[in-house]
Amino acid sequence: MVDGLVADNCVPKWRNETFDVAPRWGMPPVFRLDRGAVPFFGTRAYGVHLNGYMREGDGLRLWVGRRSPAKQIAPNKLDNLVAGGIGNGHGIAETLVKEAEEEASIPPSLIKHAVPAGAVSYRMETRLGIRDDVLFVYDLETPADFAPENRDGEIVHFELMPASEVLERIRATSDFKFNVNLVILDFAVRHGLLRADDPEYLDVATGLHRPLD
Amino acid sequence: MVDGLVADNCVPKWRNETFDVAPRWGMPPVFRLDRGAVPFFGTRAYGVHLNGYMREGDGLRLWVGRRSPAKQIAPNKLDNLVAGGIGNGHGIAETLVKEAEEEASIPPSLIKHAVPAGAVSYRMETRLGIRDDVLFVYDLETPADFAPENRDGEIVHFELMPASEVLERIRATSDFKFNVNLVILDFAVRHGLLRADDPEYLDVATGLHRPLD
């Protein structure tokens, strides 16, 4: 079926990576679907995102990666330290450990300190169809002697950016990949980087967690 | 009008504290309503809740207050270190500082370290009508030489409870005031106290932040 959809240009190409489709997270999957065809059907997809950060006096700096120009989705955009979809049969922590190693050379001895900090959820229409995504969010405070290094070619460069600059670029530009903006805003709310009396605070604090049906 | 509703037993009694009613938070209020009549009309109400905690090795302990048996709402239930409704004309931080002093004798020099960490929102039906509440949430790590002391008679006792015990009582009992369960679950998600692979994790992580209309 996906072959036919690719031939008809309804799906851009096979990704050769399949996602489980289940009535709810944690239930036995009903079928598997190639990742490229997921938006066409609008089934829910799950991912893991890692906010890497360092404290600096009273402030924070965030690890930001630049996505390769060769990426099919969001080429050249800025990204979290680690992010990846949860392929069929794989667990959340397992995906985090694997992606942390491939994308940023974070060893298991460091990634085990990552703190699960919730989930960001959204549903949106894109050129390719509906994205109904749930992103499990982790935070990792990295030690002074750590610098990420990409191994799989998906990130061309990492830098440590002051949180204030990250938030200003989220506010004023489209530099970050669309859903990374949401993950970092959630980080900013949880770490007290936004003022509660900002007129947009409640929209941010309540808008990043779409209750799941 | 509230006099008439109290006479008809539609509203239990005057609270002599008014809440602003506005189309959205931050917009000029259209009118003020006695707090006791808010559920009858189902207008949105705003509050501030403070999670007080101490680190202990790898774990956390949370400050828990027991509400006075004389309280009209949720007598004898367990509560956050500080919690209060935002009365008309008052700001979020202003309410936090005032309630922190009255309810727990937290001085301004300590409460200024409270970190805004988001908002919990819900809409529910109660015996008195609809509650459509938004709670601004703050966290405060308290120093070793601090012990809360109630001044206004609303809390009869404070204790420092291991987070694991707090979560077990939330899971298995109705010991905590209904909305304090939500505030503490949000704290637990943000501080990595829940496992992301728990089957109920996503319901908790996405269910505490009802997007506002």
Bulk shape of chain A: globular
The strand count of chain A comes to: 9
| Number of contiguous helices of chain A | 7
Low-confidence stretches of chain A are none
Mean pLDDT of chain A: 96
Instruction: Summarize the biggest pleated sheet of chain A.
Output: 7 strands, mixed
Distance between the termini of chain A: 27 Å
Can you walk me through this structure?
The structure is a homodimer of 213-residue chains. With 213 residues, chain A is α+β, with helices and mostly antiparallel strands. Chain A contains seven helices and nine strands. In chain A, the strands form two sheets. In chain A, strands 3, 4, 5, 6, 7, 8 and 9 form a seven-stranded mixed sheet that branches. A two-stranded antiparallel sheet of chain A has the order 1-2. In chain A, strand 3 and strand 4 form a beta hairpin. In chain A, helix 5 packs across helix 6. The interface between A and B is medium-sized, with 35 and 35 residues.
Describe this structure in a few short sentences.
Two copies of one chain form a homodimer. The first copy, chain A, has helices at 2-7, 38-41, 92-104, 108-111, 163-172, 178-190, 201-207, and strands at 18-21, 31-34, 44-56, 59-67, 78-79, 82-85, 115-126, 129-141, 155-162.
Could you give the topology of this structure?
The structure is a homodimer of 213-residue chains.
Chain A: H1 2-7, E1 18-21, E2 31-34, H2 38-41, E3 44-56, E4 59-67, E5 78-79, E6 82-85, H3 92-104, H4 108-111, E7 115-126, E8 129-141, E9 155-162, H5 163-172, H6 178-190, H7 201-207
Parallel strand pairs in A: 3-8
Antiparallel strand pairs in A: 1-2, 3-4, 3-6, 4-5, 4-9, 7-8
